[in-house]
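Annotated sample (chain length 537).
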Amino acid sequence: MNKIDIFSNKYLKGGFLIASGLLLGWIFFHNSAPEKTGTLAEIHDHAAEWHDIWTCSMHPQIRKDEPGDCPICGMDLIPLLKSDAVMDDQAIEMSESAMKLAEVQTSVVTRGNVSKEVRLFGKIQADERLLRTQTAHIPGRIEQLLVNVTGESVKKGQLIAKVYSPELLTAQNELLQAMEMADKYPAMLDAAREKLRLWKLSDQQIAEIEKSGKAKTVFDVFATTSGIVANRKVNTGDYVSTGDVLFEMADLSWVWALFDAYESDLSWISRGQNLEFTVQAIPGKTFNGKITFIDPVVDASSRITKVRVEVPNTGMQFKPEMFVNGIVKSQQTGSGDQLIIPQSAVLWTGTRSVVYVKLPGADHPTFKMREITLGSSMKDTYVVMDGLAEGEEIVTNGTFSVDAAAQLAGKTSMMNPAESVDLTPSATQSRARSNDQHGDTQRVTLSHPLSKHQSVKVSGECEMCKDRIETAAKTVSGVKSAEWSAEKQLLHVQFDEIKTNSDAIQKAIAAVGHDTEKFKASDNVYKALPECCLYRK
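Output written by the structure step:
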């Protein structure tokens, strides 16, 4: 078909005219400014005109002052509406409905009384200062023991035993001989009497010997103190020497209520404080006493200190080893002028304690994590030493929900401390500009990238396995921490999502001989492990 034939066809001629018209229309009108027709281009232009902040729908922590691509996932950035813009890049914004759903409640930091009821538990004990021992003043054999039951009450001067003593028999004979020569040697008689007195014989007993003129073979032993027999040391027929203990005696007219105070409670306890206590064996009655002694040494294993209250034992109602429960109502110096917050507001992250503070002036509830310094703990509250001011509003219920929202948004949180992430607009933009100079506008390498926490199943047996697994994981670039549990067979690892991933970490672990969820260690490497590390059955 030739050229003349083409133009002679009316259908081809009409199509050519239509195509020419479209081409001329595009040439003349494609550079014209769009009118306010509500098109996507217009909305985009108005967003750029009215909004200075752009973010990623998948990574809301990203903030840029111009449209572009997300430096993490590469998605197109979207404009951040003014109503959605928060006052602080590391703050988390929540809607009213989200707060109700998570049961988030706040309260104002105030000053109040710093008081506490310290509960103590202990036992009744005998007063150590009233403990006595009944010793043998006469050497010999016990012919008769008149007090032979532990717990028996003994009074001073009571007959407790009869003893046969050859040495005392000789001393009596010396006394009788001295009486015969008293006219010539009166000093000898005095010396014989004194010898018997040293063996605790009374003047009456000595007078009876002199009157009878016969030496006694068995002598009575009398109690030198009153009390309860706490421990009996001898039996009938035992031989004893001078000074041997026959009985341990306890005077229970006064007793000690001895309590165990934990190390953390010592700041609330002092000498002279009133202590109320109850005794399980005496229900319905409350006793009072003053703290007279606090042990200066803390027990190394139990971390407790003994606190003592001295109590009169009227009617012998208190018995050693009875259980007692005590309460000390204490109030610290300066009470009434210290900041206090509910314990439910505090999150613990190792050595740190943090709270979520509500930022004032925001259109919607906005919270930011803040590290604080705590003082003494009370029943339901803490004393705040530093980090908060009176009148600030903090989250007191649903704190974990707020923290979870912060973690999902990549904001500062318990698992993502402020010092480990720098996602402020200035930091992101400066990095973006630096990469633009090198011709890379699609990705931004953050100075402190986000971390990911993951638990991976890893097989092993012993502490050697633990060291090998954790070391292998930490050799992977981007891994921040790794901890393996032999009991659960799980490895908890924290790593930089930009630098590495779970597969790379598992491959490194399998390479040293340990099976993971996805990768199995080679037989040669596995068989080379020590015998204690062989986990395959």
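Annotation: The chain has five domains: 3-79, 92-114+336-420, 137-243, 254-331, 451-533.
Annotation: Residues 10-29 form the longest helix (20 residues).
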